[in-house]
Amino acid sequence: MTDAADVSRDVGWDVVVIHTDGGCRPNPGPGGWGAVLRQRHHVREMFGGEPCQTSNNRMELTAPIMALEALTRPVTVHLHTDSTYVRSGITKWVLGWERNGWLTAAKQPVKNVDLWQRLQSACARHQVEWFWVKGHSGVADNELADELATRGMQEAIASSVR
Fold first, then answer.
1. What is the extent of the structural domain holding 143?
2. Confidence (pLDDT) at 135
3. Is the pLDDT reported for residue 12 higher than 90?
């Protein structure tokens, strides 16, 4: 395993491939996120969690934010998520929300606006292409991201009972 500097230091125009996942049990409840970053022969696994009340959507958003923020210089990224909420939000909805003062079409405040703004900022540094992958379908790095998210959630829960 390498650190983020190694992942992005010698990228050139090569692509960094990222798989992310997040979730809670129950939802809402404690949650975790995970990310797998690959570039050439470099691999970095990342995870974290929230022991307090959070949501699946917040954890699904946190995973790509943390992965993109870990890259130390602008690169081309292929980001894979099993969350249609995240992919549709960042590729279709976010510009309209921003234009409308962070209100939905129904004039309601956008949920998780803090994370959407942070994700926008993280994406702005890079050339990001988004891909949806079916969860639990045998895609190795998606399965690994799921395992990392579970580990993040378990560690967050364990730290809260100490």
1. 17-161
2. 87
3. no
Which DSSP state fits 55? -
Does the annotation list 3 as a binding residue?
A: no
Tokens linked to 18: 């990222």
Catalytic, 10? Answer no
Structural domain contains residue 5: no
* pLDDT confidence of residue 110: 97
- Reply yes or no on whether the pLDDT at 11 is more than 50: no
Token code pair at residue 9: 């230091």
Tell me whether residue 14 is one of the annotated catalytic residues.
no
Query: What is the pTM assigned to this prediction?
Result: 0.90
Active site residue 136: yes
82 is in an annotated binding site: yes
- CATH (domain of 92): 3.30.420.10
* Residue 114 annotated in ligand binding: no
Let me know if residue 118 belongs to a domain: yes
Our answer to whether residue 6 is catalytic in this structure is no
State how far the Cα of 5 lies from the Cα of 162, in Å rounded to an integer: 33
